[in-house]
Structures are given as structure tokens and as C-alpha cells.
């Protein structure tokens, strides 16, 4: 049985200065054993996907931020442990508020960031080190640097996941601007009086549909793969199942139930993104649906655990999850926390893929997965060997642990966001969950329960 043994890590490369990369850097910097921490960021600023790009067709690094984008997570759950969102900001923060928040959060580690620097390749060197090849924008200067460990924190909102629709190639040739991914959507202005199909029931599909319904030709058509014949649509919308084929000759779309819609002007694909690590091409795919591959606890690359991934699981609350994962990574590489043998890590990976691989999960199951994941990471982090030079009585920098109220709110994210959106322009005045009727203390009194469910 091969044991992982002690980690010999003094120098670390962090790829990405978005929320995950900054969180990782803060926890690594809190461990005095690390001699060199370098963050590589391809943009000229921090914030990652929360940076707004005016025209994604011309942007070198486009982001999924559209004009009226708001967080899907209430600010008190979304926040990092050591910085709260402004009290006066709305409950589900605007993208401008989130970007400014991240810039405030990153200030203390900004000197460690190399901006305008794109990572071209990460390759193993010798038994345990990594060669990181980078290029500085505008200088065409390629640099190779050796590190003992690498944190991958480049996010997963850059490479659109485009479904292969029957007839799509001909349709796009005849009507090149009529099919777009949500990555290219900025506002509803260009869709006035148009006949539009929105594909996908997720967060972006729901929000974009809400923006479109007041300007498009009615009904706004929503295509959901999970749609059933008994489903009903609100006024102004028509909900249909998955698209079976596109018929370019008549700009018609046939759905899998046989329903046919003619004269379609636009199809907006709110179909999500593909986890993409172009600098890791020699490695196997790390992500498949809801499931990771060959990563212990969704973090450590099992064959070489000096490669770690932060904020990879989807349907999570990414900021606090990044903290919980970063706390573990920093402790493992500082030799204050041990990894199990490669055999044991592979057993964990096999069990995880058996449970989650190749399928989608319900919102409630995703919530319970998220809660269990974060609690497990916190419990693991506090097992680390203490050092008198570290804060928190020798434990070092620790993420916050969710309260019973936090867990209760996490289980209700979908209904809470729907209630928030239903207030229209008045939603900007809403500051707390209680204003929407999501009152944890009242729920406890009404149900007679002491705490929300802790499943898994």
C-alpha cells in the first residue's frame, strides 16, 4: 500500500485571482512555512467571473456577467468568514456589489498576484514538483517556473456547454446570430417583440427569462428537459420539454413531445459551462456531471496530491466552500494534517463517483451535499496539529462554521430567490431573509423543532 507521507512544500503557484484563488492564497499565507506563494491572474484585476465585460464577442476573457445579474445566494451565506457584505446592500447582491466586495477581500494578498499573466501549462517535474509555464499579456514573454505545489482555482464559467441540437449547424449558417449561449447575453434590449426560446431551467435561465418576458413576443417559450405534461406555465410563458430538432427552412423548432413552434427569432442556451483546464491537457478529465474524478474530497489529485482544486463542486456556496477547502489544503501542505494512503483516497473517490457520478441531483440533495461537505472539511481542518506561532490558540486561520440558521437558509435558497425576484424593482429594498418571510426563529416556534435537518 502506497502512503502519501509528508509533503515537502515551500513554493506554491495559485492559478486564478477570483474568489477561490484569493481564499486559497489567504489560508496559504497564514502558514509561515511556505517560502513563496505566487498567484497568476490572466486579467488585470481580481474578481474572476464577477468582472463585467461589455461585449463578450470582443473580450479576450469574457465573463457570464450580464447587466442585471444578481447573486443566487443571500449575502450572509455568501460572505467569507472575515468580511461581511455591506449592511445596506440588497439581500441578493448585484454583480457590482460582489465585485467590489472581492476587491476589498483581496487587498491584503494583492502583492502576491502577477496580473495579466496567463498559465499555459502545468506539468509534473521529477517525483513531486511542477513546472508552470506562463505568458505575460502584451509582452509575448513565456516564463517557466518550478513550484512544489499548485492550486487550481480558475473557476468554471468560461467555456460554454453547448448542446448538440439536431439541425443546429445549418440553422447557425443561415441565421448566425439567432442562437446564443447565456455567456453572450447582456440585456433584453435586442429581443423586443422577438419570438424567443430559453433553454435550461437553472439559475441563469430563470433570471434571463424574467428579464425577457416583459419585452418579447408572447408567449416566451421555456424548454426544460425535466418538463412533464402536467406542468403549468405562468401567464406569458409556454413551458415545453427538450428540443428534438431545429428545422432551418421554416425557422421552426420541434420538441420531444411533438409540439412544433414556427418563426423562432432567437434561441438562448442557458445550459451551463464545462469545467475546462486547458493548462492540464495531459491529465484525465476531472469533472463529469455532478462528480469529480481522481480527486480526494473533491480537492487533492490522488496520484500527486501537491495538485489541488478549489471550489470545483457545482451547486455549492462557493465563497465559504473555498475557505473550507483552502483551510485543509494549507494544513496538509504545511504538514499539520495528514492525507490517508493513496489506496484509501482512491476508495473514497470510487464511493463518491458511485453515489453521484453520471447523474443530476435535486436542489435539496445538492443542499445536503453542500452542508455535509463543508461540515466535514471543518471537522477535518480542526484536527490539524497546533503550533504556538499560529492564531486561534495554535490552530491557525479557520473558516466559519455554519450555524443552524445558516443550514436552514441553505436548504431554502431556491424558494428564497424566487420570492426575492417576485418583488420586481422593490427587491432592491430587501435586506434580510426575514423581510421575505424566511424567519428561522419563527420556523422553530411553529414547528417545535430545535434545528434543521443535517443529512448525509
UniProtKB/TrEMBL annotation:
Question: Single GO molecular-function term?
Answer: N,N-dimethylaniline monooxygenase activity
Q: Which Pfam families match?
A: FMO-like (PF00743)
Keyword check for Oxidoreductase: yes
Q: Which domain of life is it from?
A: Eukaryota
Sorted UniProt keywords: FAD, Flavoprotein, NADP, Oxidoreductase
Keyword Acyltransferase assigned: no
SUPFAM superfamilies noted in UniProt: FAD/NAD(P)-binding domain
Q: Which InterPro entries match?
A: FAD/NAD-bd_sf, Flavin_mOase, Flavin_mOase-like, FMO-like
What family does this chain come from, according to its entry?
Belongs to the FMO family.
Q: What is this protein called?
A: FAD/NAD(P)-binding domain-protein
Task: Name its species.
Answer: Triangularia verruculosa
